[in-house]
Amino acid sequence: MKKVYRYSDFTAPERKRIEVLGRNTYLDFKSADNINIVKELLQKYNPSLELHLPSEDYIEKNITDIEWVLDGPGKDIEYWTKKKREDLRNIRKELLENEIVLYHEQGEWSLVNLFDNNVKLWIDTMNYMLNEDPKFVEDLNYDDDDFVPNDRLIDVFFNYVSTTPYLTFAQVGFLRNILVEFDTAKEVVLGTYTRGSNFEDEFITLAKRKFGEDNVKVFSSKGGVIDMTGVDLCIYEDGKWLPVQVKSTKSEAERNVPKGGFSIYKKGNVFYKKKDSPISEI
Known about the structure:
Blueprint: H1 12-28, H2 35-45, E1 49-52, H3 56-70, H4 82-96, E2 102-105, E3 108-109, H5 119-132, H6 134-140, H7 150-159, H8 169-179, H9 182-211, E4 216-218, H10 225-228, E5 233-237, E6 240-246, H11 250-255, E7 262-267, E8 270-274, E9 280-281
């Protein structure tokens, strides 16, 4: 199987599906059933990485963020639906009751916590399976050796059991990325995270200058709970708070417009805004 799949080969709905399934795979390795097994593997094969409770600082900042959304100025923002608000209440409870664990590297928050929904990393892992795992290719059960439909590729990768008992190909891939291909996997994630993070920092500086510091709400960065809901910051404009998502490209901005708010992308030295209306320069 020589076909190499790229990010651009997948449609927006397919990428979203990979993102959701990737998140579920990640959560499998933080569940009560698997956490001790993973800890033993980390201690044996990757002692620089640990799985344990988040720091007090992480908990405090994220609870503050959640309460801003649930009970503070963000309580009327339509983007956070009833379901999303219920999820945030559950996360707040888990944080307060020490039920959430995170990957730490040398005592610090690790990029592994961003492995969950990084579509490029999952595609990279699928490509590895296509070229290195005969059972994965066999289970795809497709006649054309040069091409497998995206939906079939995703289904088998995330749902079929691999040669390792009880583990899907995606679960095996996740373990491989944190135990064997740790640095390579981090490079993939860092490549997408760093660029987006830099754009976000630049835009926050611009937004504070344009709208005023009191009218810009910046949430906890680097793996913060609110960031995981798809919002990078909020801006107070025209008498109400609006959710904002910062993306590195126009196409990503067009696909990720938070309901009731807007997305931002940068072209050259200019930031552009995408609402439900034509894109406008900031």
